[in-house]
Design brief:
This protein has 204 residues and is of the alpha/beta class. Helices cover 55% and strands 13% of the residues. It contains 8 helices and 5 strands; from the N terminus they run E-H-E-H-H-E-H-H-E-H-H-E-H. It binds thymidine-5'-diphosphate (TYD). Thymidine-5'-diphosphate binds next to helix 4.
């Protein structure tokens, strides 16, 4: 068992975090813990509708500023309708991406908007996960994986390799900014080996 109630996974596109989230949920459920697995953008009906707007279409469909507003709106709905009720009911919440994605994608990569990201976060979200596991993977491998999924939601993958390399640096910096909460996991290994580290961190 663990004291962690709210855990997020982060990383560049195609880093394998969704697989790790699935493994971790299965692990805790097998132990009899009530766990909710959710994701961003999305995780509530309103936020899933915003997801469709954000992840499809041309790269220039939205500016970084408009993206920041849409991701924050989606997060606020997700928090109100899904995350807070689950935590209040005593469930553990495991979330595929949360506010750190906005810090890195809109704050440091798509635009230089970190101050605005922080202001909106403080005004509208004001909550951090207890633990954030950042899965670190070689951007070349991750991009090939992400695009191979051919999900139709590739707007961010379509920004290309240089963009993913910049994102990776942004996520690495977060581990320095929030050393207690953000922990790095080497994702350049088979999923089972990565999960050993994920589990050790989630239980510590
Ligand atoms: P998704 O298909 O869920 O990708 P992944 O499996 O890699 O998580 O798409 C989410 C995309 O949205 C991903 O490219 C990251 C981006 N994103 C942001 O730019 N800002 C945010 O705040 C969030 C939550 C996601």
């Amino acid at each position: 068992m663990t004291d962690i109630k709210f855990l997020s996974f982060e990383g560049i596109d195609g880093c394998g975090k969704s697989t790790q989230a699935k493994f971790l949920v299965a692990h805790f459920m097998a132990k009899g813990q009530e766990v909710l697995r959710t994701r961003e953008p999305g995780g509530s009906p309103g936020a899933e509708a915003i997801r469709g707007l954000l992840l499809t279409g041309d790269t220039d469909k939205w500016s970084a500023e408009t993206e920041l507003l849409l991701f924050t709106a989606a997060r606020r709905d997700h928090l109100e309708k899904t995350i807070e009720p689950a935590l209040a009911a005593g469930q553990m919440v495991i979330c595929d991406r949360f506010a750190d994605s906005t810090r890195v994608y809109q704050g440091a990569t798509r635009g230089d908007l970190r101050t605005k990201v922080d202001q909106l976060h403080a005004a509208m979200i004001g909550r951090e996960p207890d633990l954030t596991l950042i899965i670190d993977v070689d951007p070349k491998i991750a991009l090939a994986r992400g695009l191979a999924r051919n999900s139709g939601e590739d707007r961010f993958e379509d920004f290309g390799l240089e963009f993913q390399e910049k994102l990776r640096i942004g996520f690495l910096k977060l581990t320095q900014e929030y050393p207690q909460r953000c922990r790095l996991v080497d994702g350049n290994r088979p999923a089972e080996a990565v999960f050993e580290d994920v589990l050790a961190l989630a239980q510590s």
